[in-house]
Amino acid sequence: MFVFRLDPNSGVPPYLQLVQQVRQAILLGFLQPGDRLPLIREVVESLAINPNTVAKAYRQLEHETLVAGRPGQGTFVTHTPTATVSPATYTSLRRGLQSWLHRAYAAGLDEQAINGLFSTVHHEAKVEDVA
Amino acid sequence: MTTVMADLAVRTEGLDKRYGRTWALHDCTLTLPSGRVAALVGPNGAGKTTLLRLLVGLLAPTRGSVEVFGQSPTTNTATVLSRIGYLAQEHPLYRRFSVADLLRFGRACNLRFDSGLARRRLDSLGIPLDRKAGALSSGQQAQVALALALAKRPELLVLDEPLASLDPLARREFLQTLMGAVADDGVTVVFSSHVIGELERVCDHLVVLNHGRIALSGDIETLLADHRLLVGPRTTNNLDHTPSVIEATHAERHTTMLVRDGGAPPAPGWQPYPVSLEELILGYLRHPAAHDTGHAAEHSEAAA
């Protein structure tokens, strides 16, 4: 059974932390189509979290069509990612981005400039892929 | 309109409470939709206990009104009180009663009391029914008091500083039981707390009380989306008169402001950052007059 965590100091809203954990687990293949997510009651019990927060996270995941609720049975993963990423690749991509960010901050860019640069380059890369 | 009214667990209007010459609460107007878990925060002496006692009918307002599920808790006592559970500070129990005695006592005193539910809760926590309440740890006493309050199957549960005397583990277990009850029965919860760090995981509604006035109240997510920190070049303008600025702190060359601007684009040169729940609460507690038009002087007894 999938286990959620909650970091009260991350600054990320609790419902979003739950959503991100499921997204990441699907990408990494830790959650596969047909797997059942814990019942809201089970998440509430293990994390001492507001049930409305868990319900909101599950609604968001349903909205993104990553999972689907089956009445009386629970919430199941439905999404098959086009490509899963191995945990090793994921970690190395993450490290690469971290070191790039350190360089960008060291060069004096602020958050706004970094986000601006990222979306520009990302947009260009997508255009090149299509072409 | 009727549905809106029925969906409110709590509604207060211009609520005042005075003890002798001291105003404990002044002009408190707030609403709490049912099904919410609301945190009531504020420093000692802010009026938190007074507000909670007004909600459960243990105090009558000096002026203004309180409604719980559309009814006054001081005039329609029997009907309203059967729908409210209340846990006073330090979760007091009759220390010489055994847990089983307390359950019998609870059933005798209440119109509605589910002893079986309380027994199952206490069993699952490994709390022996034959033990005297005074011999239990403070975490277990809190759990017994909560189980008694939940056995009423209340629609509104009011808790005064339930976490204050508990160690981190007991606090977590208490919140697990409480959130479980919210998941099972959809009970509306109002609790006062000093522990700001734990609030975001359990609460979806916030009421900040300071010097007897409501400084801030509403849905937590909406409040966080409405407020931001803006950082920019040091400004010498008098920001205290700008209504959207809650708090401004000045360093040598830059100024940081907590603003309620609803996410509008900031002036050029100002960098927006999201605000955490803790920063938001502390900002309002440090600057209690920032939100209103500032008539603190009317606290005086001039009218009396």
Outline the structure in words.
- The complex is a heterodimer of chains A (131) and B (304).
- In chain A, β2 and β3 form a beta hairpin.
- Chain A is 57% helix and 8% strand.
- The mean pLDDT of chain A is 89.
- Chain A has a three-stranded antiparallel β-sheet with strand order 1-3-2, covered by helices on one side.
- Chain A is mostly helical.
- Chain A starts with 13 loop residues before the first helix and ends with a helix.
- In chain A, α1 crosses α3.
- Chain B is of the alpha/beta class.
- Chain B is 30% helix and 28% strand.
- Chain B is elongated.
Shape of chain A: globular
Distance between the termini of chain A: 43 Å
Quaternary organization: heterodimer
**What is the H/E string of chain A?**
HEHHEEHH
Kindly state the mean pLDDT of chain A as a whole number? 89
Strand order of the largest sheet of chain A: 1-3-2
Number of beta-strand segments of chain A:
3
Order of neighbouring strands in the sheet with most strands of chain B: 5-6-7-3-8-9
Main sheet specs of chain B = 6 strands, mixed
3D shape of chain B: elongated
What value does the Rg of chain B take, in angstroms?
Answer: 21 Å
What distance separates the N and C termini of chain B? 37 Å
Helix content of chain A: 55-70%
Beta content of chain B:
25-35%
The Rg value of chain A, from CA coordinates, equals: 18 Å
From the helix content, strand content and strand pairing of chain A, which structural class follows? Answer: mainly alpha
User: Helical segment tally of chain B?
Assistant: 10
Question: Which helices and strands, and how do they pair?
Answer:
The complex is a heterodimer of chains A (131) and B (304).
Chain A: H1 14-27, E1 36-37, H2 40-47, H3 51-63, E2 67-70, E3 74-77, H4 87-106, H5 111-130
Antiparallel strand pairs in A: 1-3, 2-3
Helix pairs in contact in A: 1-3
Chain B: H1 2-6, E1 8-19, E2 22-33, E3 37-41, H2 48-55, E4 63-68, H3 77-81, E5 84-87, H4 99-109, H5 115-124, H6 138-151, E6 156-159, H7 168-185, E7 188-192, H8 199-202, E8 205-210, E9 213-219, H9 220-226, E10 227-233, E11 245-250, E12 254-260, E13 271-274, H10 277-286
Parallel strand pairs in B: 3-7, 3-8, 5-6, 6-7
Antiparallel strand pairs in B: 1-2, 1-4, 8-9, 10-12, 10-13, 11-12
Helix pairs in contact in B: 5-6, 6-7
